[in-house]
Design a protein that fits this description.
With 504 residues, the protein is of the alpha+beta class. 55% of the residues lie in helices and 7% in strands.
């Protein structure tokens, strides 16, 4: 049995409360109302203002299994009032999640009586089958019916959402924006807002979603989780049992400390969205075959969790480049273990141009890659050239600079103003020739305050001179031994009895 009811709201001042019951069939027709029904039929009209729009409701009972009779009861005035309050509460919560203060949200609600009526009418449309059997909606059902609709309005109207609510059913007057709004960007921002809202939403039980509670138990805080949702909105919709928990347990089984899990997920939340058996595990086996130390997976993943989210083709492209640069399979394995993020660098846009730049300085690129792979992630213009020019301007030849780079590639990772310049200025006060820096460029890797200045002062106090690498690279005990030995040797050469008093 099917029933069709079309009501043109323009011809009625309010929704109708209608009662159908079994009786004889009768047809009523006029220009604006058509209804096939069964006697007796009773109309009760309630005077409520309603938008001048066409409202169509269809109720189908063909598959209900009920023959000969049905009833439709629109809600009582008391229930209607209760539903309006529920709709107000949902709209208030929605507006506050978009950043409105409680005061402004309440003010908007007070100006939106027609829009609230519209939301209630939408409830009746979405859940018409529930009303046919006289069943009231729960708070959760009301939220689930209205929030997606409000989100669709937000996506359509964006910053004019409040105007839409307050001016309903009239279209809001939209001021011309100062600059054109890119729809795709607006859509992206909306997805981020939805994701942030989801991870912080309190459910009917008064608790956060299960997967959020699980992450909090792991040691993450809500701000971190919101940050993930902002960067990667899909994470907000990952299931606990299907995605997040299996990934976390897999990492723990690899030996990753529980305290490292929040950092790993924050760095690369996409890990939870990738199949363990179809993607992550095969990628790990592929990398192990390339020489990655399987005992070091916990450290590798902590350093660069994105490694497991790259395709094998992407990994192979980088590995082929390393072979091209002369690295052996064993060295490649060590490079990937120590610096897994090298996989993230584009071969043609980053690795190859950087290799060509170092080669122009006379550097053995293969050796540099094996010793300092991280330097290949630096910008040629912003990092490499300024350091090269720094030493060139201070009298070093390009060949000498190339030698320094080959011996200590990390030289290019240091700040000019905070590291190289102050240490250079102090070096000029030391009794060493500039060639000492070519032999031992690691000088720039030691702390000026805690290592260089104190040891140099002690050496000068003893009246001896050590090589620059002896001054800085020796342990405290060996440094003292080197000083004593140097003092004794100097005393013997002068025919004096050594009388040293070096601090142990």
């Amino acid at each position: 049995m099917k029933a069709f009811c079309a009501i043109r709201v323009a011809d009625f001042a309010s929704p109708l409360q209608v009662l159908f019951s079994t009786g004889r069939c009768c047809n009523v027709n006029d220009s604006s109302f058509k209804l096939t029904y069964h006697y007796p039929l009773k109309f009760v009209r309630t005077r409520l203002a309603f938008p001048q729009k066409l409202f169509i409701c269809r109720a189908r009972f063909a598959d209900s299994g009920v023959e000969g009779s049905f009833s439709l009861k629109l809600v009582s005035p008391a229930l209607l009032a209760a539903e309006k309050e529920e709709a107000k509460a949902v709209l208030t919560l929605f507006l506050k999640k978009q950043g409105l203060s409680h005061t402004i949200a309440a003010r908007t609600i007070n100006k939106s009586e027609l829009f609230i009526d519209h939301l209630v009418a939408r409830l009746h449309s979405v859940h018409k089958s529930r009303y046919l059997v006289g069943r009231e909606l729960t708070t959760l059902e009301i939220r689930e019916a209205l929030i997606p609709y409000l989100e669709s309005l937000l996506e359509e109207h964006g910053i004019y959402m409040v105007d839409v609510v307050e001016s309903f059913p009239d279209a809001p007057v939209k001021a011309k924006p100062a600059a054109p709004v890119i729809k795709s960007q607006s859509s992206v921002d909306l997805k981020k807002l939805r994701a942030i809202s989801r991870v912080s939403e309190i459910g009917p039980t008064g608790k956060l979603p299960p997967h959020i509670l699980y992450l909090l138990e792991l040691g993450m805080d809500l701000d971190q989780i919101k940050g993930i949702a902002r960067r990667f909105p899909s994470f907000a919709y990952y299931s606990l049992e299907g995605k997040i928990k299996p990934t976390v347990e897999f990492l723990l089984d690899l030996g990753v400390p529980k305290s490292d899990i929040p950092t790993i997920l924050f760095k690369r939340p996409q890990l939870c969205g990738i199949s363990l058996y179809e993607n992550i595990m095969p990628t790990m086996r592929f990398l192990e075959n390339l020489g990655v130390d399987k005992k070091q997976w916990a450290k590798v993943i902590y350093r660069f969790p994105a490694l497991l989210t790259y395709s094998r083709q992407k990994v192979k492209t980088t590995v082929d480049f390393l072979y091209e640069m002369g690295l052996s399979e064993e060295i490649i394995g060590k490079v990937l273990t120590r610096c897994p993020n090298i996989i993230s660098y584009s071969v043609e846009e980053k690795l190859r141009p950087t290799a060509e730049y170092f080669r122009s300085l006379g550097v053995d690129v293969g050796v540099l890659l094996s010793r300092s792979p991280t330097v290949f992630g630096l910008s040629i213009e912003a990092n490499l050239k300024p350091v090269t020019e720094f030493f060139y301007e201070r009298g070093y030849t390009m060949e000498e600079i190339g030698t320094m780079i080959s011996r200590y590639g990390a030289l290019y990772t240091f700040s000019l103003t905070e590291n190289l310049m102050p240490k250079w200025e102090f070096f000029l006060t030391m009794d060493y020739s500039k060639s000492e820096l070519v032999k031992f460029p690691q000088y720039f890797g030691y702390s000026l305050v805690e290592r260089i200045k104190p040891r140099y002062a002690l050496m000068k106090e003893c009246g001896v001179m050590l090589l620059l690498n002896q001054l800085l690279s020796l342990s405290a005990a060996n440094f003292d031994k080197a000083l004593k030995k140097k003092i004794e040797k100097m005393a013997a050469a002068n025919g004096d009895d050594p009388d040293t008093d070096v601090e142990q």
